Amino acid sequence: MRSIPIGSAPVTVPLASVQDLMTDLGITDAQASDTLEQHLLDATEAVLAFIGRPILSQTWQDQVFVRHFPRTLSLLVAAYPVQKVLGIVRNGTALSQDEVDGLVIADETGEIFRPDAERPFWHPGRYEITYEAGYQLPATQDDGTALPGTIPRPIQLAVRRVAAAAYYAEGRDPSLKSESAQGIGSTSWVTPDPALCGLTAEAAGLVQRYQSPGTA
Fold this sequence. Notes:
Layout: E1 2-6, H1 18-25, H2 33-51, E2 58-66, E3 74-76, E4 82-90, E5 93-94, H3 97-101, E6 104-106, E7 111-113, E8 125-133, E9 139-140, E10 146-147, H4 153-168, E11 176-180, E12 186-189, H5 201-207
Antiparallel strand pairs: 1-2, 2-8, 3-7, 4-5, 4-8, 6-7, 9-10, 11-12
């Protein structure tokens, strides 16, 4: 399968709010917001790297090859959740709008099914699927109305946990786990797990379900 984005990629913005992070940290000084926003942006990039697949809303076009055997019950696209299928072309011939509108979509898995229960399998051929998929970012409408977006709460929490860990680590060696000055003293060090892309174990656990099957 080949998948290409259509249009410019979404701008990377923090996937959690500064206000929520300030509440987590017990901070009330508004002057800290710029620093915290940078921590949230860095945490967002780390979480997205760990998930390993596009999750922000965008238009995509996937090319899927369906063989004669085994028979194919669903077309699987690369980006999800699927918001809308815009069109499907098989071997150069487009499905009608009525056919597209009648498709059954498992949005959270990226599977597209035919609605015909008696003939549910897709015919062999090369399919080009154009669709919209991904979570919506928070936004503000022209009239000032705030839209909360659809970023799942576990992803927001993971971003906040990673950002909080970075905030607490300011000014110290991030690999230093604990240190004692009593007696002869002892020091222990954290061994980073490269598979976690800089995430804490707790944050990784929160977003593991959203990983691409190829990276899980």
